[in-house]
Design goal:
14% of the residues are buried. The chain is 62% helix and 0% strand. The chain is an all-alpha fold. The protein has 2 domains: 1-45; 46-138, no CATH class. It has helices at 19-45, 48-64, 69-86, 94-97, 115-138.
């Protein structure tokens, strides 16, 4: 007796309460759901390096210039996104177009992920975050 719901007949042992047939059905559906989840995560994870870059830059701006952080970060995000959006219409060199981090986000699944660019964006974001932590330690902040 395997413990499948009553009324389901196992194809392997011809018993009504056998887990073989029940688990096979759940396993297939589970595999399909897992494949869809992993596919969605892979597509979504493609944007994480760019998000980490902007997060690190924002933390660094906040640590160094707290009052100007909003303008710096909103301006940087707007300029880089607009450059990605309309920069190619102006006809500059490819290296100028590649200055925006959005140029290095692969259009998954149509194009593969650029692992080198993702690693570089992540490293820059992490370095900016570490620099922000160092800047926060130097500031005169006290707990109240």
């Amino acid at each position: 007796m395997c413990g499948t719901p009553s009324g389901i007949v196992c194809e392997q042992c011809d018993e009504h309460k056998c887990r073989h047939s029940w688990h096979a059905g759940v396993g297939e559906a589970g595999r399909e759901a897992l494949d869809e989840l992993l596919y969605g995560l892979r597509i979504g994870a493609n944007a994480i390096p760019t998000a980490l870059l902007f997060l690190g830059i924002t933390a660094l701006a906040y640590a160094l210039l707290p009052r100007a952080t909003g303008g710096i970060c909103d301006g940087l995000l707007t300029v880089t996104f607009l450059w990605q959006l309309v920069g190619s219409l102006l006809g500059p060199s490819i290296w100028v177009l590649d200055l925006t981090p959005f140029a290095h986000v692969g259009l998954v699944p149509a194009h593969p992920v650029n692992n080198a660019a993702a690693a570089l964006l992540t490293a820059i974001g992490l370095l900016a975050g570490v620099a922000a932590l160092a800047a926060f330690r130097r500031r005169d902040l006290t707990a109240s």
